[in-house]
Fold this protein.
Amino acid sequence: MNEKILYSSPEAAERKEVTGWVSADGRFYGDNEHLARWAGCTHILCRECGKHEHEKSWTCCETCRDKHVIERYNAKPFKAWDGERLFSYSHERYFFDEQELIDFALEHNVLPGEMRLAICEPDILKMVDFDDILVDRLPEDLYLSDIAPELAEAVAKVNDIIQQTKPVLAWNPGKYRTTVTAAALIAAKTANRKDTAA
Ligand SMILES: [Zn+2]
C-alpha cells in the first residue's frame, strides 16, 4: 500500500534548482544538449564534406547537392543522340532542334557536352476508354456501348484518330542521357537542309 502524503505536507514536494539546456527559442531540453542546439540553430555544418554550412532543413550543403545532381545524371544509361529533342539538366531548358542548341551554346559559351543533356520522350495522348473511366459508375457487366451505343461509336472514332495521328502533348526528359558533339550538330543540320530542299 502507498504511504499517505497530504497535499500540504513537506514530503509532497520540495523546491529544487533545475539546470539543463535551453534552446534559442526558449524550450527546456534537460540534459539533451544536441536536441537543444538543433532546435535553436538555423544552420549546421555539412556532414558529407565538413566544409560548408547549410540550412538545417537540408541534409547536405549546396556543393554536395550539386555533386549529387551530377552523379544522378551520370548514373543514367547513355544513348547516342539521333536528332531527338533534348533537355539540358545543367541549364534546365529544352532544345527542339540542333540550331537552337548551337545558338545557345555559342551565346552562353558552353559546350553541348557540358550541358548534361537528356533525350526527350514524347507524352503521346492515350486512347479514351470510357468503360475504364466509368468502371465504378456503370452497372456491373454493362459497357458504355450497351447504354449509349451512339456515344460509344463516336468515342471509337475519336480513338481511331488518336491512333492515326498520335498527338504529342508534351516532351519530357527521358531515361537516357546523351551528348552532342560538334560533328553531330553539323551532320544534323546538313540532313535537315537536305530534307527541306527535297
Ligand atoms: Zn557538403
